Amino acid sequence: MKFNVKITISLKGGMLDPEARAIQHALSNLGFETESLSTARLFEIALEAADEQEANAKAAEMCERLLANPVIHSYTIEVAGQ
Amino acid sequence: MKFNVKITISLKGGMLDPEARAIQHALSNLGFETESLSTARLFEIALEAADEQEANAKAAEMCERLLANPVIHSYTIEVAGQ
């Protein structure tokens, strides 16, 4: 069965995010004041799995082995059937 | 009033995404077969606005002027009150 998996990878709380600070600064220069700004990466993956649990497990392993750096990143996984 | 705005910026349909292809290839080398993979950037912004509509309009202007390249990117905006 085919599943669509949405993986969001963001920096762990407390990690410095210089890119976010730079964007916030640039927005401020354009006249947009923001209270906070954080960035994350989103991966949408279509994959074959027997059930939702297996799709979730595969996605978690992809995160651990390639997509995320477990030292500095946290990730969330959403699985939707298709 | 403070609003939390979630902006997702992705490549327009039909645009080549070499990064996604490289990740798909790397996943395949690790034994993870995927049918498709696409990447996007996520910005979570807390900002002051009079109402939801104004928060949405501000976020759209941020996208047009800084966050997205309207030629190659499409964006979606989700506004949540706080």
TrEMBL record, chains A, B:
Reactions accelerated catalytically: N(2)-formyl-N(1)-(5-phospho-beta-D-ribosyl)glycinamide + L-glutamine + ATP + H2O = 2-formamido-N(1)-(5-O-phospho-beta-D-ribosyl)acetamidine + L-glutamate + ADP + phosphate + H(+)
GO biological process: 'de novo' IMP biosynthetic process
Entries under InterPro entries matching the protein: PurS, PurS-like_sf
A GO term for molecular function: ATP binding
Superkingdom, natural source: Archaea
GO cellular component, one term: cytoplasm
Entry keyword set: ATP-binding, Cytoplasm, Ligase, Nucleotide-binding, Purine biosynthesis
Protein localization: Cytoplasm
Gene3D superfamilies cross-referenced by the UniProt entry: Phosphoribosylformylglycinamidine synthase subunit PurS
EC number: 6.3.5.3
Enzyme class: ligase
Pathway assignment: Purine metabolism; IMP biosynthesis via de novo pathway; 5-amino-1-(5-phospho-D-ribosyl)imidazole from N(2)-formyl-N(1)-(5-phospho-D-ribosyl)glycinamide: step 1/2
Pfam families noted in UniProt: PurS
Matches recorded under NCBIfam families: phosphoribosylformylglycinamidine synthase subunit PurS, PRK05974.1
HAMAP family reported in the protein's UniProt record: PurS (MF_01926)
Family: Belongs to the PurS family.
Self-association state and partner proteins as the record states: Part of the FGAM synthase complex composed of 1 PurL, 1 PurQ and 2 PurS subunits.
Protein task: Part of the phosphoribosylformylglycinamidine synthase complex involved in the purines biosynthetic pathway. Catalyzes the ATP-dependent conversion of formylglycinamide ribonucleotide (FGAR) and glutamine to yield formylglycinamidine ribonucleotide (FGAM) and glutamate. The FGAM synthase complex is composed of three subunits. PurQ produces an ammonia molecule by converting glutamine to glutamate. PurL transfers the ammonia molecule to FGAR to form FGAM in an ATP-dependent manner.
Name recorded for this polypeptide: Phosphoribosylformylglycinamidine synthase subunit PurS
